[in-house]
Amino acid sequence: MNSSVHITFLGGLGEIGRNCAAIELEGRIVLLDCGQLFPYEHPGVDSILPDFRWLIDRHDDIEACIVSHSHEDHMGGIPYFFRHVSVPIYGSPFTVAMIKAKLESHEVKTPSLIAIEDNQSYEIGPFECEFLPVTHSTPGGLMTLFRTPQGIILHSSDFKLDPSPVDNRLTDLNRVSEISKKEGIRLLLADSTNSESTGVSLSESEIGPVLENVFIENEGRRIIVGTFSSHIHRIQQIADAALRTDRKLAILGPSMIRNVALARELGLLKISDAILLTEKELKSARSDKVCIICTGSQAEPRAALSMMSTGNHSVVEIGPNDTVIFSSSPIPGNEASIFRIHNNLARLGAQIVHSGKLKVHTTGHGKAGELLALHEASDPELFIPVHGEYTHLLGHEEIALDRGMGQSKILRCVDGDSVCLDEYGLHLEERVSDEYLMVDTRGVEVSKELLKERISLSGEGFILVRVIVEEKKKRLLERPFAATFGWIEAGDVDDHLNEIIEEIIIVLNGALAEGEFDKKELTRLVRRTMGKFVDIKTGRRPVLFPLVEIN
Question: Which end of the chain, C or N, has fewer beta carbons within 10 A?
Answer without folding.
Answer: N
